[in-house]
Amino acid sequence: MPQHQLYVGLMSGTSADAIDAVVVDLQSTPKLLAKHTLPLPANIRQQIHALSLPGNNEIDRMGALDVNLGKLFAQATLELLAKANLSTTQISAIGSHGQTIRHRPPGSREGTFTLQIGDPNLIAELTGITTVADFRRRDMAAGGQGAPLVPAFHRAIFHAHDKDRVVVNIGGMANITWLPAQGLTLGFDTGPGNVLMDTWIAEHRGESYDQDGIWAASGQACKTLLAELLATPYFQLKAPKSTGRESFNRAWLDGYLQKQVSTIKPADVQATLLELTAITIADSINGLSRSPKDIFVCGGGAYNTALMQKLKVLVPNDTLASTAVLGVDPQWIEAMAFAWLAQQTITHRTGNLCEVTGAKREVILGGVYYA
Prior knowledge:
By secondary structure, this protein is of the alpha/beta class. 39% of the residues lie in helices and 20% in strands. It has two domains: 6-146 and 332-369, ATPase, nucleotide binding domain (Nucleotidyltransferase, domain 5, 2-Layer Sandwich), CATH 3.30.420.40; 150-326, Nucleotidyltransferase, domain 5.
């Protein structure tokens, strides 16, 4: 076993707005010791979003971005450790999710693969800390979706033996983890979380996100648009399933907006997108079990008051709260998960759940880049 049980977790999600970095004590029950956010420059965000869809000169653009993101992940780590007054020698390893630029789950016309960048060689070299990265592809090699991976961590820290629970992670995409008191853990991507709402408000109001859902709450959902969005085949697929910006993006939305017989006010589009996120999450939860259960929300969506209120209406028999009530800040759970996954890899333990990803077997995830 490593001499220390302190691990760093690095996460940059679908929104590509920042790198979240955490130090987690994994000696026993995971304990968040320090946290830091490094905002991504606007030009880096633009490059990430551009690479999520096919385009010209992709290999050169990806190679340059891979290097730049590796340097930024290393910077986030060193700033985190300075803030926490920790030395690099106290950290057992870094777990870096990397930045997803393309995710093609099984059944995709383009083939089956997933790609996260942010060169772990650079992270290890610049920090002097052993780095674990590229977690998703080994699960795919075993026949899985490669996502979501956080349900294994959710089970480790949130499972209760006397109550059925659901953990809802609302980042750029949304995913849920079903934690029955007895039985198998399940999990899958429900569809868009914040990604469409963030894209829409950035375009129309120059804001990176809809704080508290205030703009969405000022509008009224368009029933015809909502019905067409909800008819998207992904929402009818059975788990295991995963998705990303490749499927739910501005061009996808524009295809539906162009079909509308009259122009919809921007605030009403925002309200419709919030409804889409809430309904697809709630329908997924209700499809798991109709019996009363406790629902805990994490990710940026946990801070969207209007979204949380809408979810509560759609799951009236369940309790709904953020993971803060369990003592875990909702903003940092995904980064914590990759610190935990790094420990799983370093200690030669499996990190995926077959019932979640559809993999044929549980495997040790990720590649190790030694300091």
